[in-house]
Amino acid sequence: MYSFEFERPTTIDDAVAALSRSGAQVIAGGQTLIPTLKNRLASPDVLVSLGAISELRGISVSSGSVVVGAATTHAEVAHSAAEAFPALSGLANNIGDPAVRNRGTVGGSIANNDPSACYPAAALATGATIITNSRRIAADDFFLGIFETALDEDELITSVEFPIPAAANYQKFEQPASRFALVGAFVSRFDTCVRVAITGAADSGVFRWSEAEKALTASFSPDSLAGLSVEADDMISDVHGSQAYRTNLVAVMTRRAVAAC
Predict the structure, then answer these.
(1) pTM metric for this prediction
(2) How far apart are CA 207 and CA 139, in angstroms?
(3) HEC profile of 218-231
(4) What is the domain count for the chain?
(5) What is the rounded CA–CA span in Å between residue 28 and residue 190?
(6) Domain range for residue 44?
(7) Euclidean distance between CA atoms 248 and 220, whole angstroms
(8) pLDDT tens per residue, the chain (261 residues)?
(9) Last residue of a domain, one of 103, 130, 163
């Protein structure tokens, strides 16, 4: 690692002030940033830890939504959201391994926007709202591309508000070593519509499968997806799977999610 200063603020205002310093970067659970620093792929002058800010942690349920503090760990979501939002709890409980689940955070995952991360699919499929220190951002406007979001440089996610669907399920085909999604499909059925978000598959990162949404809104059944597929040219091709392989997985995992709702 390169040398850096370390700040551990105890309030959101202090954290935002620290982030305004030149070369400052936020660290939450550190599950992505620490390996990046170890490999000298990043060299921040200042690391601003969120670990001591109690108001960034916790889960509350009100008005048909689950609100998760940005520094809440995956393990906490898996435990505390189990009754109110089982699909979100199940997603959290299947991220990485116990060490990752006890350190990684919801806000960190969403802010990083890894193309194979699970939480961006949950946010997009539920129409979540990402709440920062200065504004509210709809999930549809938040994820701009691989590792790219609508956050400004000194902006900090404080919580994420997930509307609770009438039914929902997340199905993930895992890369065995990392347990990241080769393809993950999150399906949410609301009273007036169905939303489907896909992660791990596309070169552009997480996306909504609008054709599947239209078919499932008309008739919520796995059979409604028969003959539908995403564009293969938009899919990732790597050592883990070709474009055609991922195209097929998108359809398979979405059907499984619908069947499990």
Answers:
(1) 0.94
(2) 11
(3) HCCCHHHHCCCCCC
(4) 3
(5) 32
(6) 5-49
(7) 20
(8) 678 888 999 999 999 999 888 888 888 888 877 778 788 877 888 888 898 999 999 999 988 999 999 999 999 999 999 999 999 999 999 999 999 999 999 999 999 999 999 999 999 999 999 999 999 999 999 999 999 999 998 899 999 999 999 999 999 999 888 888 999 999 999 999 999 999 999 999 999 999 999 999 999 999 999 999 999 999 999 999 999 999 999 999 999 999 999
(9) 163
**112-141 per-residue burial string, b: 16 or more CB within 10 A, e: under 16:** bbbbbbbbbbbbbbbbbbbbbeeeebebee
Token couple for 122: 């949950």
Measure the CA–CA gap between 246 and 232, rounded to whole angstroms.
Answer: 8
Gap between the Cα atoms of 78 and 140, Å rounded? 24
Please report where in the chains the tokens 């009754």 appear, as a residue: 83
Structure tokens at 149: 């979001």
Looking at 163, 194, 218, which one is the last position of a domain? 163
CATH of the domain at 96: 3.30.465.10
- Do 128 and 178 share a structural domain? no
Q: Which two tokens stand for residue 230?
A: 């995403």
Nearest-angstrom CA–CA distance, 153 and 150 = 10
Q: Taking the CA of residue 154 as centre, how many other CA atoms within 13 Å lie in the half-sphere pointing to its CB?
A: 11
